[in-house]
Amino acid sequence: MELLFERFLNENRGEWPDIDLDLPSGEQREQVIQYVYELYGSLGAAMTANVITYRGRSAAREVGKALGFEEDQLARLSSLVGHWEWRGENDTMAHHFAQAGFDIQHPRIARYLELCLRMQDLPRHLGQHSGGMVICAGLLNRIVPIERASMPGRTVIQWDKEDCADLGLIKVDLLGLGMMAVLKDSIELIPRHYGKDVDLAALPEDPLVYETLRKADTVGMFQVESRAQMASIPHNAPTRFYDLVVQVAIIRPGPIVGKMMHPYMRRRQGKEEVTYPHPSLEPVLKRTLGVPLFQEQLLRMAMTVASFTGAEAEELRRAVGMRRSMQRMKDLEGRLRAGMDRNGIGPEAQDNIVQGISSFAMYGFPESHAASFALIAYASAYLKVHYLAAFTCGLLNNQPMGFYSPAVLIKDAQRHSLRVRPMDVQRSDWLCTLEPEQDGSLSVRIGLNYAKGLRQSSANELLAARSRDGIFQTVDELALRVPALNRGELVALAQIGTLNSLDKVEHRRDALWQVEQAGRPVGPLLRGADSAHTSDKDPTPLQKMTTDERLAADYMGTGLTTGPHPMAYHRETLRQEGILSADELMQRRSNLPVRIAGCVIARQRPGTAKGFVFLSLEDETGIANIILAPDVFEQNRIVVTRNRFLLIEGPLQNQDGVVHVKAQRIVPLDITSADIRSHDFH
């Protein structure tokens, strides 16, 4: 990789190096944190604090409580507060309230707005840094106040990371990475269920993996699963590992704001000639087609054209990136130009190089970080392509993480022919597991941990009873053998179909009826008579849940469904109305008007997108990407942000296999009452 050592450590660095260690999230990360506490003592190490300030929604809720708003009013008001990174002239609380029908001239509403705005950015409380630990050889409490954290076994200092850096304290970031936990779980499942061993350090360069990446079939993969990644990766068409290094780094605010992304993509596709600011920079920029993408390239540019030392180049990067004083920048620019003069570089080339460095320095991504992320991205892609069941099981057991919810991950796996079995009191463990099928394939069984309202202690007792005395025969027997299960937990399990495999349970409503009886057990005297009476019970007169009732119960009780996608039940009607499915968009020519409908699984309004909003709509065939211009979003703000299912009309954009619909008309759809949640990002 030819990485630059001076980027991280040099003789002129006036502070401790930035030490980051990515660990599998969960128990293993906590083990490392506790090891540090044990090594340095409870007074020699502590977590760094974060100063949590009031932002839009937190301020809205706190002010509403203080002013005595009812809970439903408060929920409605706070939901109107924009959380997008991008802010336009109409992105104000007053405008959003007026759009929603509130009278902003009303004294109470006007006072509410005023207080919300005044509270912005005021400190609210201290929180824990995501992984930063301050360590010292002596007693840390002699330097900084330490307090016990709410989490057992942890202490927190009362300063944030900037305070620590100013005082020269050593901070080590022990960061939990969900995908590393997924990879760990996957490679433990593979030998047991596939009969093969996988070494993450020796994965082969697999053409099938790169083919899958080029198709943007990347749901669940690390770093390349976002809408923006899916839109760019077919254009960049990775065929080797370094292409993936670039792909990981290019969809970030830096290359976008620095206007480096599109030149690279055009050159990658052969639509633009590869050029260099000066011939001497070809060795530095050749791998990225003449476009500087990484911080290391900035340093090498200064070292090449102006004979800067590594320390001087790092000083230049920090001066530009941290927006230091204009005088310091002028001094460094003077030294840069003087060095270029000595190396015979002309004024025009100097101007281009200085401009490129100035515009790029504050946005560049370290090549070393990109390479590390690309390695994890490739590993996730390799496991998804070759060991889908194990990878999906690992993903489901390490939520929340990534761009998509478990419901979306399951539907994507099912579209790739993976069977996902529903939660079953007779078969499910606490976590999701793999099961062999009759045809020799593997399926994923949903774990009891996805049952909302079920305590892990109750589930553990259930599993212990099942392991000790065998499977359960009836609802009464389950309640009798697992007394830890309270009535609410039995009802929760019945509603989501977890009890359907028990004898004499015909469907979910029947299970709910039997739970009512089991939840109020008779005494020992009549227990035998009661069992005899119910053994010859007539078929239940209760009707089965309707399709919509089952969907609503699934999403309310687990946040997902293993059955058909809600859109599948309406496909015939939608087709008659000329509404396409997501996979049918691929066969349509660009610029043709289309109609597409689906469940909103993600909303985005990035700060770099100039007010454009991006939606991801899912149906039973895949995911469709929708683009909303700022004016279209403003006209349909409430519809777009409040509705779970949408019908979109507009022209299709189909370029090199990257498909978008440019929304012109947006209509809410009444598909199901199920509470399906979307992941909304900046």
Quantity of strands, as a count: 16
State the strand order across the main sheet.
10-11-12-14-13
- Mean pLDDT metric: 86
Sequence stretches where pLDDT stays below 50 over 5 or more residues? 531-536
**Shape annotation:** globular
Radius of gyration: 29 Å
Number of helices: 29
* Category from helices, strands and their pairing: alpha+beta
Q: What distance separates the N and C termini?
A: 32 Å
Helix content: 40-55%
Q: Could you walk me through the main structural features you see in this protein, from its secondary elements to its overall organization?
A:
With 682 residues, the protein is of the alpha+beta class. It is 44% helix and 15% strand. It is built from 29 helices and 16 strands. It has a 5-stranded mixed beta barrel. Helix 2 (56-66) packs across helix 5 (107-119), helix 7 crosses helix 19 (388-396) and helix 23 packs antiparallel against helix 24 (508-518). The longest helix is centred in the middle third of the chain and has 20 residues, at 367-386. The chain is globular. 39% of the residues are buried.
Output the keywords.
682 residues, alpha+beta, 5-stranded mixed barrel, 16 strands
